[in-house]
Amino acid sequence: MITDGLMLLGVLMALACLLIVLEKNSGWKVFKYVPGMVFMYLGCALLNTIGVFGNDEAVRAPASDLSKVLLPAMIFLFLFECDLRKIWRLGPKLLMTFAVTVVSIFTGMVLVYFLFQSVLQDESWKALSSLLASWTGGSANMVAVQGILEAPDNIFGYALITDTTMYSLWLMVLFSSVGLASRFNRFTKADTSHLDLTDVIEEDDERPITASSLAVTVFGSLFVAIVAKWVGDHLPELGDVVNATTWTILIVSVLGLVVAVTPLSRTAGARQVGSLMLYMVIGNIASGSDFSAITQAPLYLLVGGLVLLFHALIMIGYAKLTKTDLFTIAVASASNVGGLASAPAVAGSFSQQLIPVGVLFALLGSFLGTFVGLAGAQVMGAF
């Protein structure tokens, strides 16, 4: 058993390093279907389940303290590319579709929780709020809401398993829908003129990662996170949701959006460094999880499946009423449920020229995800 806090932190770093290297360089097909961060969660949770990690508070303290800084720093970096000016220029039809997507998933989550509340754990609403955040913006939002609400690690594990499983199945559905696009568009009598975005979307050139860019992304983001945390600790709590962590996340989110409209947003390595931080945050959460109660997972998988079914029915009805094409529906859904990793891929399966639409949708979701998750917590927590 590991009884030294720094050694536990070292194990998390070593496992993160191994998985990142394997995912990027091994060529193993498994990583096409299951992201490395999921293996990070499963690996750390398994080590804790078999008793490798000690449960003493002093053992957990170093990794926990580091995560409290890495989480806001990671969100700050992920918002570097979220230029709201570009997103606004997508036009009303695309933005309306995105809004309906968010509302359908939000409503579905609340309704399904209401139906299953009696058979779920008392604090399951916290985990489902984290899942809602993930299905609006991505994994970074998921762990942000988990940190704010302090969702129990075990229950959060069910949400993560549901997220990964349903996400994979949903992507298969979206990719498979490409062949039905013309038939679907005839069914909805879709007008695709709003997809001519040549004057809206510009391609950004990749810049090489240098020592100075790493200094900005690593040291700069950590400094911003530490200052935001200090300010957040001194602001008043409002109810059960708006606490010091909420204020911290709000501060770094606003600062991230400010940076996104400045030349600093093009600093190389922001997304990569943010991804490294995400691994460590996931690892810290997983190190407190226990698989011994995994029998509850199928119930959460059922909840997730019903939420996506409700979402699909709403989007089909919306498409019919507004004469919206399948591309717009599919990419809006992928940008919510899958985030930045999958929305461009789904967009590219329809047309390579429309990949930036998926990117912009996903970036908008990455900003909104945390706040949508917290809104869901307010509603579900009141039941």
Automatic annotation (TrEMBL):
It comes from the Bacteria. Signal peptide: none annotated. PANTHER family: DUF819 DOMAIN-CONTAINING PROTEIN, PROTEIN, PUTATIVE (DUF819)-RELATED. Keywords: Membrane, Transmembrane, Transmembrane helix. The chain crosses the membrane at residues 6-22, 34-54, 94-116, 155-180, 214-232, 244-264, 276-294, 300-319, 326-347, 353-377. The lineage of its organism: Bacteria, Bacillati, Actinomycetota, Actinomycetes, Actinomycetales. InterPro entries: DUF819. Coiled coil: none annotated. It holds the Pfam family DUF819. The keyword Transmembrane helix applies. This is DUF819 domain-containing protein.
